[in-house]
Amino acid sequence: MPHAARKPRYRRVILKLSGETLGEASGHHISTKVIGGIASQIKDVKGLGIELAIVIGGGNIWRGALVKDIDRATSDYMGMLATVINGLALQDALEKAGVKTRVLSAIQMQQVAEPFIRRRAVRHFEKGRVVIFTGGTGNPYFSTDTAAALRASEMGANVLLKATKVDGIYDSDPLKNSKARKFDRITYLEALRKRLRVMDSTAFSLCMDNRIPIVVFNMFKRGNLRRVLLGEKIGTIVSD
């Protein structure tokens, strides 16, 4: 059956992009080529009629967990600012691709982004815009994975998509262990018990409490985002 005739499995979707996915192989800085490829895939799936929001990380610019000489809360706020930089870069690429976009920030900076207000975000969905959530949760000590789970819960999302550079969740790092075993499906409790590091425990718990399935997949294989949204067996599903 051709793609155009198929309906997406999910209607309202939160896509989590880590900051590292925006850079070249090193994971540092911002690659306009990489971001342009992401924008192209997002434009493609918007044609399916879904409502899409993106939660973006800042690890390509600032990884506070690796800096021990700066106060943790201060370092986390610096990371939140980095997510806004990434959000603006992604917005630029999406707008150039013809996708209407709004950047919302959990930290107020009205010259460059709208403040996060839940009803405003829903209204952008209804108008067909892609929403980019930046600034994490607006609080230190919470990761952008947790921010993604929180926004998915607030927005009533049908699924949380976690974009990575590997094709799902493994019992060990597949880049370091050739015998690593991939999970096609795993429960939230198993993910927590096994301490799988693809997302932090707070993010897993939030999705479990609100019954939001998580799909971990390789977004950087062309067409995978569309395949996930159409319900094909791509990556790993975390659910009940």
What's the SSE blueprint?
Layout: E1 12-17, H1 32-46, E2 51-56, H2 72-96, E3 101-105, E4 114-115, H3 118-126, E5 130-134, H4 144-155, E6 159-164, E7 169-170, E8 182-183, E9 185-187, H5 188-193, H6 201-209, E10 214-218, H7 224-229, E11 236-239
Parallel strand pairs: 1-2, 1-6, 2-5, 3-4, 3-5, 6-10, 9-11
Antiparallel strand pairs: 7-8, 10-11
Protein described:
With 240 residues, the chain is of the alpha/beta class. The chain has a single domain (3-239), classed as 3-Layer(aba) Sandwich (Carbamate kinase), CATH 3.40.1160.10. It contains seven helices and eleven strands. It has helices spanning 32-46, 72-96, 118-126, 144-155, 188-193, 201-209, 224-229; strands at residues 12-17, 51-56, 101-105, 114-115, 130-134, 159-164, 169-170, 182-183, 185-187, 214-218, 236-239. The chain has a nine-stranded mixed β-sheet, with helices on both faces. The chain has a two-stranded antiparallel sheet with strand order 7-8. The radius of gyration is 17 Å and the shape is globular. It starts with 11 loop residues before the first strand and ends with a strand. The model has no long low-confidence stretch (mean pLDDT 92).
Under CATH at level 1, the class stands as: Alpha Beta
CATH architecture: 3-Layer(aba) Sandwich
Strand order across the biggest sheet? Answer: 4-3-5-2-1-6-10-11-9
SSE sequence, one letter per element: EHEHEEHEHEEEEHHEHE
Number of strands: 11
Structural class designation? alpha/beta
CATH superfamily: Acetylglutamate kinase-like
